[in-house]
C-alpha cells in the first residue's frame, strides 16, 4: 500500500484528536476524507503526510515505517497540500510551481512540466505573476499546480476545492480522478459531499477523531449516518452518475 496507518493516535496540545485509526489507501483510488469541523480530517492528513508525528501507532509509506524514511525520499513518495498556506515571499508563479519538482532535482523538462501543471488548473496565463498578487482562488490553483507537477505516487490535499469557483472545482476533481485512474493514490479532505460522492471511489467519514464509516459513497452517504455525524437531515439524489447532496434541516 502507498500509505496506511496502524493504531494511529495523535495528540495536539495534550489532547487526543485521533484515536487508534486503522486505514489503508490503494493505488488507483480517489478517497474523500469527510466529517464535521474538528473531526480530525486535517490532523489525519498531516500525520499521513509526515507533518505531525503520532503519539502512538505508525504510518507506513510504501510498506515502510514512515518515521524512518529520510525527508527527501518521503517527498518523492508523497506530495501534500495543507488546508491553508500564505506565500512567505514574492516568488513568480512558475517558480513556486517548480518547487514541487525539487525532490527530483532539476529535471530537463522542468519548464514543460510546470506549464503543463499550470494548464491543468487553468493558470498558465498567471505564470509570470508574483504569487503575492493573486486572488485567493488563483493562489489556490497555483498551489495545486505545485502539488500536481511532481511524480509522487501519493497525493494528499486538504480542502483543495474550498476557494475555487464551480468551474474550477469540477476541473480539479476531473484532474484528481484522472490522476487516480492513472494509478496514483489520492486522498482529499472535502466538505462538499456532492463532489465527494460523484468523483471519489471511497469515503472515509470521521467524527471525533475516529473513523465512523469507510466504503463506497452509496454506502457511507446515507441519511442515517449523515444525521448521526452532522446532525442534519438530508437527501442524496443520484442522476446519471451525478450526485446531489441536499441538506434539509437541523436535527
Ligand atoms: N494547532 C492545533 N493545536 C491544538 N489543537 C488543534 C490544532 N489544530 C487542530 N486542533 C484540534 O484538533 C482537532 C481536530 O482538528 P482538525 O483540524 O484535524 O479537524 P478538521 O476535521 O480538519 O476540521 P475543519 O473541517 O474545521 O478543517 C480539533 O479538536 C481541533 O480543535
What distinguishing features does this structure have?
alpha/beta, Rossmann fold, 6-stranded mixed β-sheet, globular, binds adenosine-5'-triphosphate
Distance between the termini: 39 Å
Major sheet: arrangement of strands? 6-7-8-3-9-10
Q: Beta fraction of the residues? A: 25-35%
CATH topology: Rossmann fold
CATH superfamily: P-loop containing nucleotide triphosphate hydrolases
Largest sheet properties: 6 strands, mixed
Q: What is the CATH C-level name?
A: Alpha Beta
Unreliable segments of 5+ consecutive residues: none
Per CATH, the architecture is 3-Layer(aba) Sandwich
Q: What number of domains? A: 1
Protein name: ABC transporter ATP-binding protein
InterPro entries: AAA+_ATPase, ABC_transporter-like_ATP-bd, ABC_transporter-like_CS, P-loop_NTPase
Domain ABC transporter: 3-233
Keywords: ATP-binding, Nucleotide-binding, Translocase, Transport
How would you summarize the topology of this molecule?
Layout: E1 3-12, E2 15-25, E3 30-34, H1 41-48, E4 56-61, E5 64-65, H2 71-77, E6 78-81, H3 93-98, H4 110-120, H5 136-148, E7 154-158, H6 166-181, E8 185-189, H7 193-199, E9 202-207, E10 210-215, H8 217-220, H9 223-230, E11 232-239, E12 242-250
Parallel strand pairs: 3-8, 3-9, 6-7, 7-8
Antiparallel strand pairs: 1-2, 1-4, 4-5, 9-10, 11-12
The structure holds adenosine-5'-triphosphate.
